[in-house]
Amino acid sequence: MKLPRLVTLALSALMAAAVVTLLVTTPAVPGHGPPSPCPSRWDGDRFGGWVPETSRLAGVDDVLVPGSPVEVLFCAYSGENVEARRPLTGSRPVAGADRIARDLSFLAATPDSALSVCTAIGGRATSYLLRFTYGDGAVVWVGSADEPTSCATTTNGTVTSLVYIGESLTEAYDSGGWELPRADSACDSGGRRGQHERLVPEGATSVVVCRRVADTWTGSRYGEAEARRLAGLLNASPAYPGEPGGCIGPPGLFRVAFGYPEGPPASVTVRGGCAFTALLVAEVGEPVWREVRLLASHG
Description:
By secondary structure, the protein is α+β, with helices and mostly antiparallel strands. The protein has 2 domains: 41-175, no CATH class; 206-297, no CATH class. It is 21% helix and 26% strand.
């Protein structure tokens, strides 16, 4: 039976309305949603060491940036370093999000609320928020800074690194590309992931033992056998969080830099009766001193 034209039009209108209602009321597929833009202000009470929110992504309690993000946006907050809280002054995407994440994941980080003790030096400072976005829309924020005293911390809100990366951030923001500069000298200090648990993380394949004479560091390089032996001696002494104090022992100042197949070195300073990093200190005895002195005098 053929329906009258008016009835047909009415049914068509009802069906269209039902489809629209279904589209409007159907809940969105659960997900992370679109990434947030740069916050309009830096609300941390110091330069670096702050993020607007903490991610729940797996791995953020171990490294600064886990996994392989697909893009990163740099948010800059620049001005004189008299007041940390300041408005957004600019933003830009930077190429190589996965490479930046990989470099940052190798930095020594601790779940504790690590703070750098900075001296007061006037000048310009820029706090940076890095918004890493993943393929599924998840976001990890990292907060750091480039400031005159070179001691700003870097955090994702869960773990914090005392390794200073301010100059690298500014170069990346200015150029749009990333390059984590390597140390000018093997004797320069540095930090590596795992040094919040032990002085020397596993896997070292080389070591440079440096001795300071006057104001100059001189170093001797060795292979895996020497690296493993010295790492074992250093790790044999219980290490605890803190700063070296009352380190009674032979005179001299040494820096030991352990190299790895990839990522930054793990540096340990030996002075008096102590061996220490930015996060840990251990009391060491004659076996460590004898080995360090021997390696520093040869090579």
